[in-house]
């Protein structure tokens, strides 16, 4: 009997300890400490980060769709900067669709890159005269702008790419300057295109080529880590992010699988990948911000990214806490 009482008391003690542990881990989840989404003052999508000197500049499209509107309404791009990936400073709007006289709307995905002290911003917009989406370039002496149209016309228009009949295959530019100084532009929806850029960054330097990638939807992003080139992209629809690796920026690319799962409450995911101060980051958007967040009112988030010894990337774990 005594043994039975001792045993029951022991079990009660274990149970109360377990409850205390459970309660303490519940109380550790303090929403005030959630760093995702990192931009809380407006809806933003299509993040593109630039590491320049000791800061990260984060460019995004401004999702302006009203709560009952179920498509993109995007007229301008925004920029934020940070020295520690936790505190983000907002800057005045550096670029709008109206800065491109030849465009008629749609501030879709973009990327900024620096060359010789100038900042080139490759953007997706709808063309005013040529049916379909197109890619323009803006330039500035500062990463926070103001930016102005660098060309006075589109760099890529829908009639330059004939691999698919859709009118929105010329979207989502990503730019990379290789070690030998050669710059490349990658872009696409349904078909992944790429071409060399001249040193002036505003003219193509050769033919438009394509890359065959499984279930390529859109949002290519090129980055390099150690000796590998990575081509990540939106895979299927709704979108996951998948990636391929190569020893050369011109391929051949070897498909490596899924990097990020579906983003919460958003049919797109649109990633940007950088290394900053010894840590790798995966930056993306979801539709988690409430009360009105969703596929057309998105929020930029970021989480740490890790590599395996063989250079492959570990699956991203999306968190509310983000970068602490
Ligand atoms: O933001 C409009 C479009 O949604 C982008 O161009 C795509 O990448 C997707 O995120």
UniProtKB/TrEMBL annotation:
Keywords: Carbohydrate metabolism, Glycosidase, Hydrolase, Polysaccharide degradation, Signal, Xylan degradation. InterPro entries: Glyco_hydro_43, Glyco_hydro_beta-prop_sf, Glycosyl_Hydrlase_43_Enz. GO terms for molecular function: hydrolase activity, hydrolyzing O-glycosyl compounds. The keyword Magnesium does not apply. PROSITE patterns: PROKAR_LIPOPROTEIN. The keyword Signal applies. GO terms for biological process: xylan catabolic process. The record marks 172 as: Important for catalytic activity, responsible for pKa modulation of the active site Glu and correct orientation of both the proton donor and substrate. Residues 1-22 form the signal peptide. PANTHER family: ENDO-1,4-BETA-XYLANASE, PUTATIVE (AFU_ORTHOLOGUE AFUA_2G04480)-RELATED. Belongs to the glycosyl hydrolase 43 family. This is Glycoside hydrolase. It comes from Flavobacterium hydrophilum.
